[in-house]
């Protein structure tokens, strides 16, 4: 008989609060520091409103469609709309079901907020709100069910410990689709107006990510501790690698490069955190810095898409590499699952299939949503608004005294 564990409950309560720090204020500070000063408040607003919308959708119908009885592995039958039928004594494993619900809520809200970094400085707030409502319903919820809620990818054996597919590949592919429809800014240069804000934001992200990955064990045990350890190791490995790449390319290390590398490492280890050991974490961190660095400095200029804060380059592609690396480095010593290096090449095949399915679905559906919004209500602010800044033009506010 499964009973409530006070230790597990206490840990996941703490982990939930840590993940909340990633969106509020982690993403807000990280993204807003990278933008122009005239768009700092709008950038914060996009992240906040996305988190709020995702949270409300999650308790209204999202949780029910993700974690209910699966219908052919595609979506769940909604038995708990508005969380009806769930009480304070209901359990999900050894923790209260309400706790599992809000822990998963933070993932839903965060994923939408991540996308906002791609569109800063040029998207109508009304269009953003409509996009997030439809996107959460048609993209996030189905993918979360496929991977975590008993859907077809979970039944296939796909491994995604804390959101490499559900959060990062999903947000990255969706961001790319959105910016292709939205179009470019007049000034596409990345000139952070307050890099200190971004460093603070990444600090909150890094701190919260330990709950993001460690909390996904859903228990206060050795697996949670291992997930926290490899999360930090992958992040520092990627940070150091990015700094070296900056030194080679430009002759000087940069703070922007350091925090970009750290985030890339955190992203890449997310799907693998509960399946790999420390040497693998070092390898994942090192290699993912190469992947995202190439995407930002070579792939994006060549293809010409305007992903303002590199959501696709960092979250999408590091998430993709992390999922594939899970199929390579997963060791039975951590969680009983073997990857390619431990004699199970089939796991790598499964990871590749799951990654392709996630990114293609997220991209295609997001692209269709964006095209429909553009055709009906428009997506991009007018040139005057973009030049003067979205803070004063859309919110009648300023982040700084004028």
Describe the structure.
With 402 residues, the protein is mainly α. It is built from 15 helices and four strands. 70% of the residues lie in helices and 2% in strands. Helix 6 runs parallel beside helix 13 (345-376) and helix 9 (255-269) packs across helix 11 (311-329). The longest helix has 32 residues, at 345-376.
Strand % is under 5%
Relative helix content: 55-70%
How many strand elements?
Answer: 4
Count, helices: 15
Rounded to the nearest angstrom, the distance between the terminal CA atoms is: 64 Å
Q: How would you classify the helix and strand content by structural class?
A: mainly alpha
Topology:
Layout: H1 6-34, H2 40-67, E1 69-71, E2 75-77, E3 91-92, E4 95-96, H3 97-115, H4 125-148, H5 152-156, H6 164-182, H7 195-214, H8 222-250, H9 255-269, H10 278-303, H11 311-329, H12 332-335, H13 345-376, H14 383-388, H15 390-395
Antiparallel strand pairs: 1-2, 3-4
Structure at a glance:
The protein has 402 residues and is mainly α. The protein has helices spanning 6-34, 40-67, 97-115, 125-148, 152-156, 164-182, 195-214, 222-250, 255-269, 278-303, 311-329, 332-335, 345-376, 383-388, 390-395; strands at 69-71, 75-77, 91-92, 95-96.
